[in-house]
Amino acid sequence: MSSFAPGQDLDALYQEIILDHYKNPLNAGLRDPHEAEVHHVNPSCGDEVTLRVHLEGEGEDAVVADVSYAAEGCSISQASTSVLTELLIGKPVREAAVIHADFLALMQGRGQVEPDEDVLGDGIAFAGVAKFPARVKCALLAWMAWKDATNQAGGGAALAAAASDPTAQEDPS
């Protein structure tokens, strides 16, 4: 996770974080065990991700035990996938769903949403990407794949619980 230094150019820092995740991806490579595997493609640019989710526990108590992936595409889509794994592995699905919702709101905010570093960690680097609608789909590719795979893996109850609990949106910790 990165933090800001006074006087540091925010755009340069964001670019540095994205390039670091692109060059040094976290949790890359498909692993077992997994309960679901999905393949998502961004038809507008050709980015692809095959993503596996392994959950431990059931229902609303399910935990994201692992997320692994194989991805091809631009630095934004691959860095976003790396950040996703850093943020969601080890979290209860319900908490991961809140992080997912915050990242989605950031990306759909067209650069007008102030990201919360405590929730999104390195995901705040994508605030600049949100200003470019053509790149938003690149950043969201893995996040949509994770939600799909988590539903297929049996985490749908926890995802639904997070979506229906407005207090969960305020504080995932």
From TrEMBL:
Annotated ranges, domain NIF system FeS cluster assembly NifU N-terminal: 14-138
Domain of life of the source: Bacteria
Signal peptide span: none
Record-linked NCBIfam families: SUF_scaf_2
Protein name: Nitrogen fixation NifU-like protein
